[in-house]
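Read as chain and fold; for instance:
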Amino acid sequence: MRILWIFAHPERHSLNGALLDEGLRTLDALGHEHRVSDLYAMGWKAVVDAEDFRGPGHERLVVGAAQEQAYGQGELSADIRAEQEKLAWADVVVFQFPLWWFGPPAILKGWFDRVLVQGFAFGLKDAAGTTLRYGDGGLAGKRVLIVTSVGARESGFGPRGIHGPVDEVLFPLLHGTFWYTGMAPLAPFTVYGADRMTPAGAQDATEALSHRLRGLSDEAPLRYRHEQGGDYDDELVLRPEVAPGRSGVAAQRLDARDRVPA
């Protein structure tokens, strides 16, 4: 497999740095190809602005339209084009970051904003003119894994924990970014209690990540509903007979109670 690893942590000599090192060693041992984008080391520019577009100046910057035009004309800035080339190359994308304020650091949010542009990752249509998203899109066929660390204890992210289950906390990324652009998200790999991690605990965490990566080829993704799968009406609301009694995040996931077409 070809794996792109996006690393978004400001300290390379950290628990996250050790996880990255072990992850890459494991991928090498398994014979996988990999590329790494270390965003802090790269000095990645995190904000979208007119400098992203090399074409003629815009009287009024409409970001989505400007991104799509610049992408189509090969006029996005070189750093964006380089990341898009890596992303197009990859079969699996790993996004590694510490969970800050229930989301990724700003530098990684900026990577999403600048790299996943209209016309490349989303905003595509099929021959019938249907917009391709939520299970389809420019990045369909790729799988994606979040590797994240949190300072809190695992119990706080349990079914009744104060923080909420981690796959719900990360729903905006898993569903709203990855699944929206067609990438199939795997269950996140989460290291809890990172702020109080002992050397033994760090060793356990790196070994657990290595074990997870060894099964990466066969791991099934989370089962979200396809927009064009028939579960949603024309207003993009679940039909009354779909997921009865469920709402919110839980209703967007397929589980054993759902009838899946053969």
Q: What stands out?
A: The longest helix spans residues 15-30. Residues 225-262 form one domain. The chain has nine helices and six strands.
